[in-house]
Amino acid sequence: MIEVKQNNDEKHGNFEAFIEGNSAGLMTYTWAGEERFIIDHTEVDEAYNGQGVGKEMLLAAVDFARKNGKTIIPLCPFAKATFQKHEELQDVLVNQTQA
């Protein structure tokens, strides 16, 4: 099972994934004002490739955005591609007219 923990401060944050207590991946973000954040990097440890680690971290980011009324700008290629594939996640994306 994948566990995702969030670390956040006023300017930056990340979602870190763990499998059986081992660090499996990291998704970093930067705040762009108070209402939105930019997912700028996603990495998954080679040992956990193909196990859905990246998607779990993205789902945690989406959940955080929904619960807190925030929007996401996906600059990271992985995050951008995942949002494009999953229409049900796109409600948290920054509207192009807002950017």
UniProtKB/TrEMBL annotation:
Coiled coil: none annotated. Residues 7-94 form the N-acetyltransferase domain. CDD domains: NAT_SF. It comes from the Bacteria. InterPro entries: Acyl_CoA_acyltransferase, Gcn5-rel_NAT, GNAT_YJDJ. PANTHER family: BSR4717 PROTEIN (PTHR31435:SF10), PROTEIN NATD1 (PTHR31435). This is GNAT family N-acetyltransferase. It comes from Chryseobacterium ginsengisoli.
